[in-house]
Design goal:
heterodimer, A: alpha/beta, B: alpha/beta, Alpha-Beta Plaits, 2 domains, globular
């Protein structure tokens, strides 16, 4: 089904999207929020710029954005896939617990914060460019990969992995990360680590036409939590 | 003895004339305060281990036990009372943050106890609730500002989704993890039988309790534990937790050692990892951001459920509530500084936040002044202890109240305030299997139903006395309240007159 979003408010647009049994193509999208909220099936292709909270609570559907996305993409996403050919805004994948998000360009502050995993549910975010500060804050599970394509600078901001107590973050850069918080252990990714994340790199490569040679052309740094109880402070029973 | 040795606060008194060495007390005490000395043939107790939960007292078949406050004392001092000295010793020994449970026990004024309710005499008739119908049913949710008609003149149904309650009381958010499965089941079944609602708290919803979904409020908080589409769909309403009265401004932290078995599965995190709910929602730094979360939840559930935003009662509560009432939320829940908790730093619990009575009165006034009172319903908690508190809260402007502690007391809680130890002898605030099974949900739910049924009768009697036959007519009806022993500022904020006026 083809929808022209021009002159449609988010509620009208989302009614139409929810009502459709088949795949949906949205043209001329101009900031309509909450597209694909809780969607469990079908593919939604968006040409233009969707508004905040794209694919919140996504439950199995696929969303493809030919353009940039804004804040809170994939908030508390449970399953499915979000592919963004441009950039994404802040709090990408907040509290995400399953499915995958691929961003060709950059993402904003607080990317992948408080992601978590449980058994076979393991969320994945791959950002092609750079991210803002607080990447993977409170990370409790899942996998975040930042490729830093097109930059020689270190591709994440300040406070990466603050409060991290699960999951892992891979950052591709020839610069060694500095000033990481005390909850984070840093190592260079081993060949077996790369093997483990390879399917996600290949998927990124296939989606966005970036060669695997280029992706693997720099060092991958691996950030792991050094404790599952980072905020344990000494309490005294009173 | 070391400098930080503290003489126990409570003493276990055993009447040896009555004790039959049956060892029930020993088996019942998870704190291991009782012990049988076989060679001496007698039971002994260690006062230092006693938390004064009355489990042994209640189950002793010969009534041989009682717990008394120790008369051991520090030198009398109006400034340095025993609690303050003890706390310093504890912190000097450990370097730890003081941790407490349940509501603020400090001696702040309880405004509910300084307000009295009106009754009809001579000039207006009171109503006999045993003889005449009395309506305690309420609806929670936004009220449309105008009636719309279609071209045939028929009223158009433009009512947003509402919660319908048989009486203006709900069970407040207590997560599976902070309380046991049996406690959750008791509350769920009681809510279903009573036609009211209970609240999952931020710990997800155990799959066996989905069947009570139409009487369940599902909570979404900063950690998003256990939140997924099915969870959102299963509840009758969704509550966004921004704050809690017992610990305004700080997040939650269920330690990894409590994340076991079903708790792990329901929260959807691995066993042994901490469940950290950050203090703020890191995607909400403004009312506009809050609006976004409200509408993302409404979109995800196709506008079929009301959304509640819960905040702690703090200094600027009226302005904050005004913002929430414009955020698209259908219901505002306000939690006063006496609200309970399964664990909170003592200093936060006892010193942060404001009394619910003042918060409620100022929020209700602010929303009325701004003409947006009908945008939202107001639910208050922290702490509602009796049907009289319910009536007073409604008269101050609340649509409904949340009770937590009162419901737990109905389940057997004796307010020993040691929930944070996870060793609750009454099977409520514990995940230890042997302790949880002490709370039988078949009996527990019935006790909660009894309590609410009794309160409903009392509410009707008080309403009848005032000559009011529908609880809706009591809401915000401040003429039905008078203050006793309150100063002018307090009366002004509460919006009531002094007794005698």
């Amino acid at each position: 089904m083809n929808l022209c979003a021009l002159n449609l408010g988010y509620r009208e647009l989302n009614e139409l999207v929810h009502g459709s049994e088949e795949d949906v193509v949205i043209d001329q999208c101009f900031g309509q929020r909450f597209i694909g909220s809780g969607a469990s099936s079908k593919t939604i292709i968006i040409n233009g710029t969707p508004g905040n909270a794209l694919g919140a609570y996504l439950d199995g559907a696929s969303i493809i954005v030919n353009g940039n996305a804004q804040d809170a993409v994939g908030d508390t996403m449970n399953d499915g896939k979000i592919i963004i050919y441009g950039n994404a805004g802040d709090t990408l994948g907040y509290g995400m617990r399953g499915g995958k998000i691929f961003v060709r360009g950059n993402s904003g502050y607080r990317t992948g914060i408080h992601m978590k995993e449980y058994r076979d549910k393991k969320p994945v975010i791959v950002v092609g460019g750079s991210t803002g500060s607080f990447l993977g804050e409170y990370l409790a599970g899942g996998l975040i990969i930042v490729l830093g394509l097109g930059t020689e600078e270190f591709p994440t901001g300040y406070f990466t992995g603050t409060g991290m107590h699960g999951g892992e973050i891979f950052i591709r850069s020839n610069i060694v990360p500095r000033g990481l918080p005390k909850q984070v252990t840093l190592s260079q990714a081993s060949p077996s680590d790369i093997k483990r994340i390879e399917e996600n790199l290949v998927e990124f490569s296939d989606l966005f036409g970036v060669s695997m040679d280029e992706i693997l052309g720099k060092t991958f740094h691996r950030l792991m939590p050094n404790a599952t109880n980072p905020y344990k402070q000494l309490y005294t029973e009173n | 003895m070391a400098v930080d040795y503290l003489y126990p606060e409570y003493e276990i008194i055993r009447n040896y004339d009555r004790c039959i060495n049956c060892r029930v007390c020993e088996r019942q005490c998870s704190n291991e305060a009782h012990e049988y000395l076989g060679d001496m043939g007698k039971m002994v107790s260690d006062d230092a281990k006693c938390v004064n939960c009355h489990r042994c007292v209640s189950l002793c078949p010969t009534r041989a036990l009682k717990i008394v406050k120790s008369d051991h004392t520090f030198k009398a001092n109006a400034n340095w009372d025993a609690a303050k000295i003890r706390e310093i010793y504890k912190q000097a020994a450990s370097g730890g943050v003081l941790l407490s449970s349940m509501g603020n026990p400090e001696n702040f004024p309880v405004y509910f106890d300084k307000m009295v309710i009106n009754a009809s005499q001579v000039t207006n008739p009171s109503i006999d609730p045993l003889r005449e119908p009395m309506e305690t049913r309420i609806h929670l949710g936004a009220k449309p500002s105008k009636i719309e008609r279609d071209k045939n003149g028929r009223i158009r149904k433009n009512l947003p989704p509402h919660l319908k309650l048989s009486m203006p009381v709900m069970f407040s958010a207590m997560s599976f993890g902070s309380i046991s499965y049996n406690a959750h089941e008791s509350l769920a079944r009681a809510a279903a039988e009573l036609g009211i609602y209970y609240n999952t708290g931020e710990g997800g919803l155990h799959e066996d309790l989905y069947k009570y979904g139409s009487n369940t409020i599902v909570q979404v908080a900063s950690g998003r534990f256990g939140v997924h589409r099915k969870y959102l769909d299963s509840g009758a309403a969704i509550e966004i937790k921004m704050g809690q009265g017992a610990k305004p401004g700080i997040g939650g932290h269920l330690p990894g050692k409590k994340i076991v078995g079903d708790i792990s599965r329901t929260r959807m995190i691995p066993e042994g990892t901490d469940a950290i709910s950050p203090a703020p929602h890191h995607d909400i730094y403004s009312i506009e951001d809050l609006r976004q979360l409200v509408y993302s939840l409404k979109e995800a559930t196709r506008y079929t459920k009301p959304v509640i935003v819960k905040i702690a009662a703090v200094h600027n509560v009226a302005a904050i509530a005004s913002g929430i009432a414009r955020s698209g939320a259908d219901i505002i829940a306000i939690d006063g500084f006496r609200g309970g908790t399964g664990a909170a730093p003592t200093r936060i619990r006892d010193h942060v936040g404001i009394p619910i009575e003042l918060a409620l009165a100022s929020v209700d006034k602010r929303l009325r002044d701004e003409g947006i009172r009908d945008n939202v319903s107001i639910v208050v908690g922290g702490s509602i202890r009796s049907s009289a508190d319910v009536v007073k809260a409604v008269a101050l402007g609340a649509d409904c109240v949340y009770i937590g502690t009162a419901a737990l007391i109905a389940l057997g809680c004796h307010l020993c305030r040691n929930c944070h130890t996870g060793k609750c002898n009454w099977g409520i605030a514990t995940q230890r299997e042997d302790l949880v099974k002490r709370l039988n949900p078949d009996i527990g739910y019935k006790r909660v139903v009894n309590l609410m049924t009794a309160w409903q009768h009392e509410i009707k009697e008080m309403m009848g006395g005032m000559g009011i036959n529908a609880i809706e007519s009591l809401r915000g009806n401040r003429l039905m309240l008078r203050g006793v022993g309150l100063n002018e500022k307090e009366l002004e904020i509460l919006g009531i007159k002094h007794a005698g006026e």
